[in-house]
Design brief:
With about 230 residues, this protein is α/β, with parallel strands linked by helices. The chain is built from six helices and eleven strands. The protein has one domain: Rossmann fold, CATH 3.40.50.
């Protein structure tokens, strides 16, 4: 561990996560998405924009996933992800690749599931964090949703699934873009801050070349069961 990092315990001590002390740290969004994803036994999963590897690590300890390949653009986060894999003794389940999802380091039709917690603030919306790692993770600077959907389409086997979390007020936009990429929305769960506020986030799972028919799951409030992590 480096001097500017911390180790935090999650899932009742089942995971130990190295994160930056002052730089980008994952949010509860990643945990909600990891729990939402419908991973099947022995699935091959690709985690796009993996950050410190939290989604991959969560899936490796909580599901019967076969193999996970995590792709991360930023040097520091890729290093943290690699060390987190070793720290949690999950190197037989997870591989980390430092690379750009716009130029995929993996061949086509590789995965049963692609998961992504994307940067979903528009480039010109709100204050962009002066910390570059936080800015890239939160704003659509280096990666946009069309890049993610294009990568997902290329990576998925026939009938494969893609899951992501996105602002609820951009739901119509993401549905339209998913369909342009031949990924049909199949499962949806909305996250509300509380029972009297407008929706904040939406978790969507789509199927490549899927038929129409959307299952809407019960809503989540606040941070779900991760209110105290």
């Amino acid at each position: 561990m480096k001097s500017n990092e911390t180790i935090d315990s999650f899932l009742n001590g089942r995971l130990q996560i190295i994160q930056s002390r002052q730089g980008y740290r994952f949010s509860v969004d990643a945990l909600l998405l990891a729990e939402f994803v419908s991973v099947r036994s022995e699935d091959v999963v690709v985690d796009l924009g993996a950050g410190c590897g939290i989604i991959s690590l969560f899936l490796a300890v909580k599901t019967k996933v076969g193999r996970i390949v995590a792709i991360e653009l930023q040097d520091e986060l890729a290093s943290q992800a690699e060390r987190n894999i070793v720290l949690n003794k999950l190197d037989k389940k997870i591989a980390i690749i430092q690379g750009d999802l716009r130029h995929l380091p993996i061949g086509p039709a590789f995965a049963h599931m692609v998961v992504c917690n994307p940067p979903y603030r528009r480039q010109k919306s709100g204050r962009i964090n002066p910390d570059s790692s936080k800015a890239i993770a939160r704003h659509e600077l280096s990666t946009k949703v069309n890049d993610i959907l294009s990568a997902g389409k290329a990576l998925l086997k026939e009938g494969g699934r893609l899951a992501l979390i996105y602002p609820a007020n951009r739901l119509a936009e993401i549905f339209e873009k998913m369909r342009i990429h031949k990924i049909e929305p199949k499962r949806l769960q909305i996250v509300f801050p509380n029972s009297y506020s407008h929706a904040k986030l939406a978790m969507i799972e789509g199927r490549l070349q899927g038929k129409s028919g959307l299952k809407i799951l019960p809503p989540l409030f606040g941070q779900g069961r991760f209110s105290v992590v």
